[in-house]
Amino acid sequence: MNRKGISLIEILLSMALFAIIFLVASSIMLGIVRSDAKSRRQEIFEQVKNDVQSELVNSIKWAKEINLDQPNEINIDGIVIKLEGSQRITRQGSPITSDSVRITKFQVKELGPGVDNISLKIDIDMENADNPTIKDTFVIVATKRSTKIVE
To answer: Of 76, 65, 62, 77, which Cα lies nearest the Cα of 147?
Structure first.
């Protein structure tokens, strides 16, 4: 028997094999893309946490005067840090947090008594602005620095 060309069965088998390889490769790529998106969301959350923590801790640590007029507001040396519109933490109206994160809780509580050595506990809950099922919570505890110059 003299064969010239490829039979229909061979073509169908090669197409089925190609389809299986394509499905495996596409599912691997989809997993990589999902993992990358999740990693980016976590990175944004961590960056917001670091920015907020740094801003609040340094402001409280070096403050001359701290007033807690409301549970979601801190007045540090005349600069008001508060939750605005149930979404963003602001400092004198300028946002500290990014648009991609929504702040759902910003509660300030005094831990230590006294004006010279005040300690504050700040509870913050946040969620992804695009997907509210992605949430995170963190607590900041900061103490005002008490420095006295002795001559």
So the answer is: 62
